[in-house]
Write a structure and sequence with these properties.
- This protein is of the alpha/beta class.
- It has 2 domains: 9-123 and 276-287, Quinolinate phosphoribosyl transferase, N-terminal domain (Aldehyde Oxidoreductase, domain 3); 125-274, TIM Barrel (Alpha-Beta Barrel), CATH 3.20.20.70.
- It is 43% helix and 19% strand.
- The protein has helices at residues 9-24, 29-34, 56-66, 95-125, 144-153, 171-177, 180-193, 207-214, 229-239, 256-260, 271-274; strands spanning 40-47, 51-52, 71-74, 81-82, 87-94, 132-134, 167-169, 200-204, 221-225, 244-248, 266-268, 281-287.
- It has a 6-stranded parallel β-sheet.
- Strand 10, helix 10 and strand 11 form a beta-alpha-beta unit.
- Helix 1 (9-24) crosses helix 4 (95-125), helix 3 runs antiparallel to helix 4 and helix 4 packs across helix 5 (144-153).
- The longest helix has 31 residues, at 95-125.
- It starts with 8 loop residues before the first helix and ends with a strand.
Length: 289
């Protein structure tokens, strides 16, 4: 559905294993060539900029897959605010395992924290309006589970996870089906025939299209795509809470407050995940812990 979707451990584990295989390949020749098997290490994750931390649990899984004796201890919870110079977690265990997992753990942690940080900025910008910030499917291929987890940790909500958990009729569907009314009717018939109890959303690009959607039954949410603010206000007034309303299209931190004040329920922002600025985090190691 459109809200929080559970993330299965097997999916996350499989993703981390693929990332480690990509990085380690046949073996970490530098680590194995310079560090003895008996050497133990201790390391600290240090934030170099302020933001919202996300992915500590994932980083811990990375190290545990590298060596079952590696243990990551968070200093604070995922979703917490962090300041520059703050140590957010420590990890200790066999030094070889820590070094093998270092880059992969940081890649996940920095990306997820960047997404959570940006999401938190948008959430703060619309505070008090009632509008909720939501993501899109504009995620890095293969990383959607973690990208969407990071959005939640930043205070946002998830839109559909994939093409199978919600029906979203967009402009190209409408063209191919021969119009909004036909597209909605055909989709409803398809869902009912298969016993699928899924939410149905329709994208609109004009007030006339909004009126047409309002004449259809069974729609839960209407998307206002690239509407000017005044047209968005008029659409919200016309919908009058009969359907959930989502604003979408080119929304930035500079414009999101004004969009929220039109009265929409959701604001979808692709930039949360498709244009990620990683949070600057380093791993500083100390030998022989």
């Amino acid at each position: 559905m459109m809200s929080d979707q559970p993330i299965h451990d097997s999916r996350i584990t499989r993703l981390i294993e693929l990332a480690l295989m990509e990085d380690i390949g046949a073996g970490d020749v530098t680590t194995d060539g310079t560090v003895g098997e008996s050497v133990r290490g201790y390391a600290e994750f240090l934030c170099k900029t302020s933001g919202t931390i996300a992915g500590l649990e994932i980083a811990g899984l990375v190290f545990s897959l590298c060596d079952e004796d590696a243990l990551l201890t968070p200093r604070l919870a995922d979703g917490s605010k962090v300041s520059a110079g703050q140590v957010v977690a420590t990890v200790k265990g066999p030094a070889r395992g820590l070094l093998r997992g270092e880059r992969t753990a940081l890649n996940f942690l920095q990306r997820m924290s960047g997404i959570a940080t940006e999401t938190a900025r948008y959430v703060e910008a619309v505070r008090g309006t009632g509008a909720r910030i939501t993501d899109t499917r504009k995620t890095a291929p293969g990383l959607r589970a973690l990208d969407k987890m990071a959005v939640r940790l930043g205070g946002g909500v998830n839109h559909r996870f994939g093409l199978d958990d919600m029906a979203l009729i967009k402009d190209n569907h409408i063209v191919a089906a021969g119009g909004i009314t036909r597209a909605v009717a055909a989709c409803q018939k398809y869902l009912e025939a298969r016993g699928l109890d899924l939410a149905l959303e329709v994208e609109t690009t004009s007030l006339d299209e909004v009126e047409e959607v309002l004449g259809c039954s069974g729609v839960r949410r209407i998307m206002l795509d690239n509407f000017p603010l005044e047209a968005m206000r008029r659409a919200v007034e016309r919908i009058a809470r009969r359907l959930e309303v989502e604003a979408s299209g080119g929304i930035t931190l500079d414009t999101v407050r004004a969009v929220a004040e039109t009265g929409v329920d959701f604001i979808s922002v692709g930039a949360l995940t498709h244009s990620v600025m990683a949070l600057d985090i380093s791993l500083e190691m100390f030998p022989h812990a």
